[in-house]
């Protein structure tokens, strides 16, 4: 339990530190590619922090199934 709380605090600190890095290019350049890149990074960090990728993989394996090697 302590590890999860500690990981969440670390992730929050990282996001707070990255916020100015994300805001400065958006204010001055604001091109679509920069916005897409920054949103992709933020989304990836959120998915990893919540463990959503593991839940999606498990749900997919339960629906599709997995072949065992011969």
* Helical run tally: 3
The helix/strand series, from N terminus to C terminus, equals HHH
Given as residue ranges, the uncertain stretches (5+ residues, pLDDT < 50) are none
- Please identify the oligomeric state: single chain
Beta-strand percentage range: under 5%
User: First CA to last CA: what distance?
Assistant: 39 Å
In short:
The protein is an all-alpha fold and 70 residues long.
Strand and helix layout:
Blueprint lengths: L1 H27 L3 H19 L1 H13 L6
Structure description:
By secondary structure, the protein is an all-alpha fold. It has one domain (2-64). The protein is built from three helices and no strands. Helix 1 (2-28) runs antiparallel to helix 2 (32-50). The longest helix is centred in the first third of the chain and has 27 residues, at 2-28. The chain is flat and about 55 Å long. The mean pLDDT is 77.
What attributes does this structure have?
mainly alpha, 70 residues, membrane, SLC13A/DASS, transmembrane transporter activity, transmembrane helix, transmembrane
